[in-house]
Specification:
This protein is of the alpha/beta class. The termini are far apart. The chain has one domain (9-249): Rossmann fold (3-Layer(aba) Sandwich). Helix 1 crosses helix 7 (222-233), helix 3 packs parallel to helix 4 (110-134) and helix 4 (110-134) packs parallel to helix 5 (157-177). It has helices spanning 21-31, 43-53, 69-82, 110-134, 157-177, 203-213, 222-233; strands spanning 9-13, 35-40, 60-63, 88-91, 139-145, 182-189, 244-247. Bound molecules: ligand IMJ. Residues 94-96, 98, 101, 146, 153, 155-156, 159, 191, 196-197, 199-200, 206 line the site of ligand IMJ.
Length: 256
């Protein structure tokens, strides 16, 4: 137990089960004394998330489908009423149609493109705007990205384009919110076996390649991500904004 986030109110969006990256970040933030607020997508996720957080004291849990502006407004209104001030926000949400992660990229439909951009990128802008209003003591906003934004990861397709837009959004938000003492950064995570990796063909091959090629000769863990998230959420990273840091066992630095 540390005190790096003691008394800080941190909103974590994107927990689905105990394997979720957002959950790994939540555990690390809790261990540093944060008060946690969670959102879950819908009725199907409600029970699992409420069960997960039931062992934590002082947490708040709200339903929020980020494709609905009224859901987002509701969450931030509830946070304003119950906590008054927000110090941290973790956005760990992405979605593309399964068919768009299987077919060829150039076959991406307009609807599939718009859906991926709406859930994976616009939602970040939408929550950053509301968070700004509640981060009256300054704050730290964090999102999750993947290297498929910059290099071709076969099958990542429209998600790669969405993550490129998300990373650009980090920089524009960092520029605009810096004057309010709010920092905005991203973690580019190496592959992790979560619900978002389910059904992705050859995923275990990808994990094996990282283990073989990455400088650290292993895949990353939720603890690795939790540590980086605590750094970015806390004053340890006070001089840093607009950045994307790789937590990938060093895989991204390699050439052939
Ligand atoms: C996803 C697709 C293709 C290759 C992939 C991934 N690699 C990794 C991922 C190599 C690591 C996981 N990732 C980084 C994601 O951002 C996944 C996002 C995602 C996953 C799904 C699967 C189920 C579904 N829609 C999805 N939308 C986004 O229906």
């Amino acid at each position: 137990m540390g005190e790096l986030l003691k008394g800080e109110n941190i909103l974590i969006m994107g927990v689905r089960n105990k394997w979720s990256i957002a959950w790994g970040i939540a555990l690390a933030a809790k261990a540093e004394g944060a008060n946690l607020i969670f959102t879950y997508l819908g009725e199907r996720e409600k029970e699992a998330v409420e069960k997960l957080v039931s062992g934590m004291d002082g947490v708040a849990v709200y339903q929020c489908d980020v494709s609905k502006e009224e859901d987002i407004d509701n969450v931030f209104n509830e946070i304003k009423n119950r906590f008054g001030v927000l110090h941290g926000l973790v956005h760990a949400i992405a979605y593309a149609r399964a068919e768009d992660l299987q077919d060829t990229f150039v076959n991406t439909s307009k609807e599939g493109f718009q859906l991926a951009m709406d859930i994976s990128v616009y939602s970040f802008i939408a929550v950053a705007r509301r968070a700004k209003e509640l981060m009256t003591e300054g704050g730290s906003i964090l999102t999750l990205t993947y290297r498929g934004s910059a290099k071709v990861s076969p099958g990542y397709n429209v998600m790669g384009v969405a993550k490129a837009a998300l990373e650009a959004s980090i920089r524009y938000a960092a520029y605009e919110l810096g004057g309010s003492g709010i920092r905005v950064n991203g973690i580019s995570a190496g592959p992790v076996k979560t619900m978002s990796a389910k059904g992705i063909k050859n995923f275990s091959d990808i994990l094996a390649i990282v283990e073989e090629k990455a400088p650290l000769k292993r895949n990353i863990t939720l603890d690795d991500l939790g540590g980086a998230a605590v750094f970015l959420l806390s004053s340890l990273s006070s001089g840093m904004t607009g950045e994307v840091i790789y937590i990938d066992a060093g895989y991204n630095i390699m050439g052939v």
